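Go through this one:
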Amino acid sequence: MGINKRKGVSPVIATILMVMITVGLVAFSYSFFMGFGEKTVESTKEEFGKMKKGQQSFEIPTAYECEDDKICFEFRASSKNTLDMPANESFISLYVDNVPKSLKTWDGGISGTECKGNTDKLAPGESCYGKLNQICDNGDTYTLKLSHSWDIDRTYSIICK
């Protein structure tokens, strides 16, 4: 019988290499899955926020011809809302017969809260008032549409006197 002259890695070095490979794989797996979990948490929070905004609503309880033959309206956050609703020109687009219109003022000539500024919000059930820069001609019928950036649209028909 001959003597085996093959040389190999000693058992101590082999064990150290195995431990290093295992630690490296565990560290890689941890960093990969933790990053995945953080992204999931962020996207879940974002989707819940969108869903909550989508459950909010507003009404146009009244719109009418006011002084200077302009169109005045009331914007009211639904009393069932769970969030304060932004109520200013940054969040609301106004249309008359599907033509974009600008506000003359947020003071609609009705006694009540004016919606103005960039941070005004309406608590559930609160209202504010606006006046459109639109002439309300005698006998004409207009459709007022308020479109909120939270994907909510409401319309109201006005007959001018």
The chain has a mean pLDDT of 79. The helical segments are 11-54.
